[in-house]
Write a structure and sequence with these properties.
Blueprint: H1 2-13, H2 22-41, H3 45-54, H4 67-90, H5 95-115, H6 124-134, H7 143-167, H8 176-180, H9 187-211, H10 218-226, H11 232-259, H12 263-280, H13 285-303, H14 310-359
Helix pairs in contact: 1-11, 2-3, 2-7, 2-12, 3-7, 4-6, 4-7, 5-6, 5-9, 6-10, 9-10, 9-14, 10-14, 11-13, 11-14, 12-13
Amino acid sequence: MKLQAKEELKKALAIKKSERPWHIALLASLCVGSPLILGWYFNQFTFGFLAAISGTVILYLPLNASTTIRMVTLLTCSFGYIISFTVGLLFSFNPLISSLTFGLFAIAIHWITLNYKLKPPGNFFFLFIASLASFQVFSIEDIPQKIGTLALGTIFSCLLALTYCFLAPNPFWMNKKAILKAIRKNKRIQLLEALILGIFMFATTYLGHILAFKNPYWIPISCAAVMQGATLNHIWQRSFQRILGTFTGLILSWFLLSYLDNLLGICLAIIILQFCIELVIIKQYALAVFFITPMTLLMAEAANPNLLPTDQLIQTRALEITIGSILGAIGGWFIHQEKLKYQAAKGIQKVSISLKKKLK
């Protein structure tokens, strides 16, 4: 057991190779960082924060595609961002209704991303934005302005992406094997995955409302991040890596929150952290979470200066992410149990068919 534990720890901490070019990290930093700087300059950081969140749509830019396919994908995902944010805001007036709506939305978005084989980060940022919106204070007057700000952020990211497509070389899209290779899943398994994810999104969102944390959306977000794992072993690794990265990242968070006392410094720190995240997220997830933790805390701190004291804020965030990661690991176990059942049934069916042929 000790040897197995050591082997699993090595796998979890291993650094993978990545063909992702470094300028994708620079592009992501510009998409997230530019709205923050504009929000700071015009003293409207709350709206800058919303536009910066929508800048993450750039992460859906496919590398192995032509410019046309790249832009169509990005525009479609931008529309998905707006729908996600709108759904979250419109039903945020009641915790139970908001949680139920978010669970149903998670089922729909997961099935759509599976059916259309959307590459990583998959459904994560759509769930992230919907969860973020569902925990905001309900105000019918502010909804159009918030949705418009988010939409402007996606438009800005699409313009930067179009410029990037014309300026940067695109050596990947000629690799036809990479384009044609796709894992086809059974429709029943896709629906079961979507239902299980929806149930866990509802449960974690409602749990966040019940516990009444300052930023309870980190419980469903952490749960969704862990459930992104491709295999059961990958999900357990994700859970371990997220908790490990969070607790080590909280040390850096405490240092930055203690010494950064002006909004411009916070904005620059967020841009640098975003660049680091995109450089390492494919290579080492725990290391990426190490940078993600302080970046999200800094964004929350800048968008809402009346937050909890630093020590209390860090403790609460650690608890939220730990709860979400554990629930995500449990949810992932349920998903892969269903997959195993399907594979076993399929195997039995093949054996029975071959036996019938032999008997004939």
